[in-house]
């Protein structure tokens, strides 16, 4: 205690400004090393000794108190003596006053403050610039209740020192107590303008401006205050409030967040932060803030109100996205919160208003969800669920009306509450009653409440629009809407409702009103829905109407709009859209008592081939019709029953379908479509006689049918008769039919399909007549597709279908209709299935990858054709010869595009097994070409493991087992190239156990023989080789691979069995057997070359070249064999053969092949030494820069050396460098060659050699 006092006394004795002084008057900080010493003064060391004595007080007890009092008395006497010695020194009076003031504050002397005030007054008179003296005087007068003098003293202190926080705060407190707010603002503003470090002034000014709601002025003041007090949570909170009121919500959230970081228990900051998040539409973040505020203060009314508001806003978002159940659960939570708030503050109108808003929204959005599954829902369960749903909504609506009435009692001058009651009453009256019929709508109470609102605010255009919507009288509707437009001509809602009103008697005016509304506010749903309503009259195209209605549903998901969207989808062909399915499911939840919503839901499910769900929806629709007890005509029930029978029939439940048709027959309501279903279901059940009898009844009604229904009936009867009675009976029945029955494209397709199976073509005349009714390009393309398929069947042989005739027809048709997706995909599919040598790469050229999502049942998609064609083409498809050099002129040029398209398809549909399967095979092709790079191999292994992890395939997919078989073989190949022979054999053994034809299992045992041969286990290799001979295969590549194994490992001594099997396989390959024989000869020739049997190699390769005269690979190999024979001295004719073959290679090669020019230079140089230089110079251009070998540089050295000797025909490439540099480049590429080093030594200087 004494140490603290001593410091303050010392600071008072040595005020700031004296020489050598290190003292601060305001806070008493000092440094002992800088204490000045004055003669006659009590040395400060006494104060220090006192302080050290205080440290020993714990041991000395009361003895220390005596020393302390003695020291204080001595110090007071010394200060008094100094003042007496120098009465004109203001600093000495101030020091003595400070000492006495502190003695008085500590209670040592009762009159010390009065004596101190006298000295402060003398000091102020002697030195009027001493702000501290005025501050102490202000403290003294404030303590004596003389506020006026205190204000003047404080004001003088602040004027002299604007940074004096103590005086400034005290002054502002006194002014605040006396209500002098304007003077307080003026003082703070003056102080802040004088000194930018007057943080207290900025803080006080900011608070005052926030209090006065001067938000724009408060922001800079609070920002300046925060620089002085960065950890003051109040300042950050006030700044956030100012930002919030200015609409700067992001900055407000950051300020509130900083306040919360400083003090986590600030309720106001969390509540206002939640309100700001609601302003931004971030209701989830707002809920989080309100919940945290309630965890601090559970009874906070503002936090509870904000939480309920945030839940209300989030529920609106959920409802707009179709999540009605989630939205209703959020509203239940919000309702419970607001009920608690009304108990806490039941006299606030806003509480009741929000509670009513929540309850009315709950009544509107509460969805109907059947407790039982739709397939098990009977009529009584349906009635109970509808009754419960209606009562829940009515109860919520009544509660909302009661809450609105409570709010109206508290604030009867609010017109909008009158309108809320009117809307609530209208909702209650619009809900169907619990009985099976609708209540008559009563508009009396809604109209009265709306008129009451208008009495309060007659110029409120929104109230006029609301009255126009609530009224049931057209004249009153029109008057109200026009009155609203008179008040505000840009009111889009009024124009939209006016257009809805005019649709009943003047569609042109209605269209104009909708156009005006849409131009004013495109986000309004009603004009878009009104535009789509004219599609049935043909004034708007179905596609355009669907897009308009879809836009309306996206803006506002009303059940009426959603039902209309579904109707338009069925008309315009968008019935399989997921948006339509979601819309009709939501419509069923919003209007479950409406039979049409269930019926339309069934139609959508049926269009998506979900027949079980469709049947369930039709049953519910029938329950809804029966519940209305005669309010709808009997035809509605008949239509739904027919739909139910059709869906049951498509689902394979023919028994129930026949039962439904029998019920319609008993009631006499079985129409034409019902007869179709009845006959088809009877045929499925095996009741052929009854089916034919029903078909006869159907045929009797054909003359009275419409044209479209007539065509469908004739087509159905023809197909049914063919399926039951056979081809002859069907043709005879068709020939007996009247000719006008065949005037339809659909009938023409059916007749063409039947005529395909008739070898005599007895229906040709009828078909040619019916084909005149093919009008659209789509129908014509479909007919060409059918004709191509018919030619496949009629031109088939014992070796297979007549693909060539079908392909030729499609190629001709494609010239006439080049943009037909159907013809292109059909042609690509047939090319893949045919045996043509070049058909696989041609198939990829038929695909249009950028075409829309076109699919046809039975045909492969564009990406399937592209992927399969890229695999089936044996040529290497690289465009840059980095890993190998392509030699096939008919190579597939779309391999890269195939991989990219398959990856895109797999990304869009990760569950697509076929895309994954084709991607694995394409990547394996690429890996083989690129010599199996590790990264690509790792990707292939990962994809194979994913594909094999799919255990089950659909029963309808017969190729699933074959795909798994190939994937296992791919896994074994990856293990084989990776050197893991154990894993390779494991995979192949698994593949050999698949239940597949021997035609495919052959390749599993071929892979096993490869693995055993690499291990050196010749016994097992021999066993698997013989197993391959036993199984056999229809694929020539399999026999060629087996022959290669026989040549490399001498599997059997007698190869006649293998040759006979290969010849038998080639006989089945019409048109390609010569090419496969040439490939076999090429392979044997290569093996002979490897074994240095050049005579046999020349004969075999000559045979291959005779068939594949444009294949540069076979020509090159033949030339090499001839060169070797010429070197052995077998005659100069082999040199001529080699030169001829090498020249053909240069002409036919897709890209310039390396080594060809070198070989040609050698062969021609042997005949004419003058030509070798020109041919050898061309070799440089056949190599890519990153693949040029060392020998090529050495050849350039030879050319350069020869050019140096005097030959001027060397190329520019050769002459650009010296022979020595060419040798240096060869050594740089291959430093291990001693031959290059010896040549380089010839060019080196003797001194360099010595070094």
TrEMBL record:
Question: What GO CC terms are in its UniProt record?
Answer: Ski complex
The TPR repeats extend over 131-164, 233-266, 267-300
Which SUPFAM superfamilies does the UniProt entry name for this protein? TPR-like (SSF48452)
| Keyword set, alphabetical order | Repeat, TPR repeat
Pinpoint the Rhodanese domain residues.
169-224
Does the keyword RNA-binding feature in the UniProt annotation? no
Entry's PROSITE patterns? RHODANESE_3, TPR
Q: Would you say which domain of life the source belongs to?
A: Eukaryota
Q: Where is this region: Disordered?
A: 1-24
Q: Give an example GO biological process.
A: RNA catabolic process
Q: Does the keyword Nuclease apply?
A: no
**PANTHER family in alphabetical order:** SUPERKILLER 3 PROTEIN-RELATED, SUPERKILLER COMPLEX PROTEIN 3
Protein name, entry field: Rhodanese domain-containing protein
Please give the organism: Trapa incisa
